[in-house]
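New here. Invent one.

***
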Amino acid sequence: MCRFTFYQGKSIRIGSLITEPKHSLIRQSMMSKEREEPLNGDGFGLAWYSKNQQGEPALFKSISPAWSNQNLHELSRVIETTCVMGHVRAATQGFNVSESNCHPFKWQHFAFMHNGDIGGFSTIKRALIHMLSDEAFQHIKGSTDSEHFFGLVIDELIRLEHLEPWDRLPTAMMAAIRKVIGLIKDHQVEDPSYMNMVLTDGHLAAAVRFTTDVSKNADSLYLNLGKKYVCEDGVCYMKDSGVNEKSVVISSEPLSSDPGWETVPVNSMVLVEEGRIRDKMEIRL
């Protein structure tokens, strides 16, 4: 399994999320608190949007561990953005450690990342590929279940391009989840799936915490709302949570000890718009 962090809101240095908090994403790459295996050293990736949120997100990926990549430290120190996702990878058994397999993935102005695994992916992979359009299939560069799932999302985004963005993103995610679960049932896969995911276009984001595990033993996911997530004199916290939230952090594990962190419910989706929570919904299949 992996660890990730997503931020949208007022302009922030990437380092305020990735390197500086007491339990930053880099810290989680070395010493995750909510996984049996604490190391997430099979590469990392960042996707971020320019401060005016125009155009495609920038990507920076590497197969080196996040904790030892000096370029990551330097970029995080100076780059400011209003929307960023960071991911540290613990490769699922059978998947190569390669840059093409590192998250996040992007298509046009969308970025996507996943923590978990799709149960029985090797069993359903061929059928999943047959469902993809040529555009989605040709966009896949790696071998992960995550990127193939994103292929399904791409096709749904194309199919739903007539919808308003706040309907298009969550509808595409839900439709892709239903397709995967349908394949799993058709192939009688018994292994549970764990699907913590974020999809964003820089303005909107859909964050999912989902599992088919009957015990609801889902991977951890938290959110924190406020005016801005800041690091001051080595202490990181969310400023002034309340009714006028303008910044949202969604993370596999809390980045710091401030009291604003809350657990995302299992089998739910959170829709973020311009640093605010637009909606929360239960995932029903």
Remarks:
- The mean pLDDT is 91.
- The chain has one domain: 3-282.
- The helical segments are 15-18, 25-31, 70-78, 121-131, 134-139, 145-159, 165-186.
- Residues 165-186 form the longest helix (22 residues).
